[in-house]
Automatic annotation (TrEMBL):
Record's function text: Converts heme B (protoheme IX) to heme O by substitution of the vinyl group on carbon 2 of heme B porphyrin ring with a hydroxyethyl farnesyl side group.
Pathway(s) it belongs to: Porphyrin-containing compound metabolism; heme O biosynthesis; heme O from protoheme: step 1/1
Coiled-coil residue windows: none
Additional free-text comment from the UniProt record: Carbon 2 of the heme B porphyrin ring is defined according to the Fischer nomenclature.
Name by which UniProt lists this protein: Protoheme IX farnesyltransferase
Species this chain originates from: Buchnera aphidicola
This protein's encoding gene: cyoE
Length: 283
């Protein structure tokens, strides 16, 4: 039974968001690291994200049943009662909000609630009707970086907003690549994702443009003095290679060959990006 509850919180999504929290928290902390605040921020935010994933699973039962990669999920196979999942999601969400509000700060708590609302009540329903659901969803996916930063400073600054925008560009590239890789699944579920409505070729171009935006906005962090040229050097190598793969993807007739590489390399990109901003001491 425990493994069913673990599955519906989508651990991989939580781990991906924890990377953003850690990176922005350490970037914001620098020489005043507070271990208790660090653990509280990760715990509270992770619980809220887990809750949003539970409710996403509940709302998407019908869609998930039509897609090959999701048809064996716990709620689809009725291995867990929806009312129990709903109760579980409510409890862990409440605990997460409580943890952030009382052990971190109210700004971080407020941001987590916004992220929850966007993901559960806007993105989850909008993806059934609009190609722009991915863009809206990227906002909730980038909010953990805001939470990590505001947990330390209890304020929103220019660099905080820059990080938020940078991760939006990253997420658009990441999820557009996913939408190409799992194109057949989205067709079966009758979801109007970008490559289905606008075509795969156009989606590839958009991935290329978003990676350019991600790369240029990353450079701004150094040019404005927030991060060092050491950061700029290493992030440039990674970003330019990612851009090169995307360029090859546009020229390749096989829609899946390079799209999967873009997807997997995007994971490497976001991990190393957050490591670099965590250990850079320019700020």
């Amino acid at each position: 039974m425990l493994k069913y509850y673990l599955e519906i919180i989508k651990p991989r999504i939580i781990l991906g968001n924890i990377v953003l929290i850690i990176g922005s928290f350490l970037f914001s902390s620098r020489f005043s690291f507070n271990i208790f605040l660090f653990i509280s921020t990760i715990l509270g935010t992770s619980l809220v994200i887990a809750s949003s994933c539970v409710f996403n699973n509940l709302i998407d039962i019908e869609i998930d049943s039509k897609m090959k990669r999701t048809k064996n999920r716990v709620l689809v196979k009725k291995l867990l009662e929806p009312r129990l999942a709903c109760f579980f999601g409510t409890i862990i969400g409440g605990l997460g909000i409580f943890t952030l509000g009382f052990l971190v700060n109210f700004l971080s708590m407020f941001l987590s609630i916004i992220g929850f609302i966007i993901y559960v009540f806007i993105y989850t329903f909008l993806k059934r009707k609009s190609i722009y659901s991915t863009f809206i969803g990227s906002f909730s996916g980038s909010i953990p970086s805001l939470i990590g930063y505001t947990a330390v400073n209890n304020s929103i600054s220019i660099v905080c907003i820059l990080l938020f925008i940078i991760f939006i560009f990253w997420q658009m590239s990441h999820f557009y690549a996913i939408s190409i890789v799992y194109l057949a699944d989205y067709k079966n579920a009758n979801l109007p994702v970008f490559p289905i409505v606008k075509g795969v070729s156009k989606t590839k171009k958009h991935i290329f443009y978003y990676i350019i935006c991600f790369t240029l906005s990353s450079f701004i962090l150094t040019f404005l003095g927030y991060l060092s040229y050491v950061f700029l050097f290493f992030v440039s190598i990674l970003n330019l290679y990612w851009l090169y793969i995307s360029y090859l993807n546009m020229k390749e007739k096989d829609h899946f060959k390079f799209s999967s590489k873009i997807f997997y390399f995007s994971i490497i990109i976001v991990i190393f990006f957050n490591i670099l901003i965590s250990i850079d001491f320019r700020f």
